Amino acid sequence: MELTVTTDDPTPTFEQLRRQVVQQVRTGTLAPGQRLPPVRRLADDLGLAVNTVARAYRELEHDGVVETRGRHGTFVAHTGDAAERAAAEAAEEYAARIQRLGLDPEQALEFAARALRVTTPPRSRA
User: Domains along the chain?
Assistant: First the structure.
């Protein structure tokens, strides 16, 4: 696993780490079941505070990307792409709320596109 952080990036350091791990899981660079370096060792390797790395790991665990097995360490989760699962769950919640509000799907797509700062709503892949 290769991670880097830069002070030139305005993104918080823990978020830089989190994003890199997510990207490596998505591309298969980090395989399900693969052990991540211990928090202290990664912090030392990158010259970061232990709390910074610990926060990145906590965020990753909360998102289902990794799982902590106590003293055995932190591992890439076996449950697939956590970001896609979370997005699908958010979409389901959004759709249910739109229905409760009585809006039609076209309006819902317009609101979503605006929220995502997209100029036109995405077309369905039917």
Answer: 13-76 (1.10.10.10), 82-115 (no CATH)
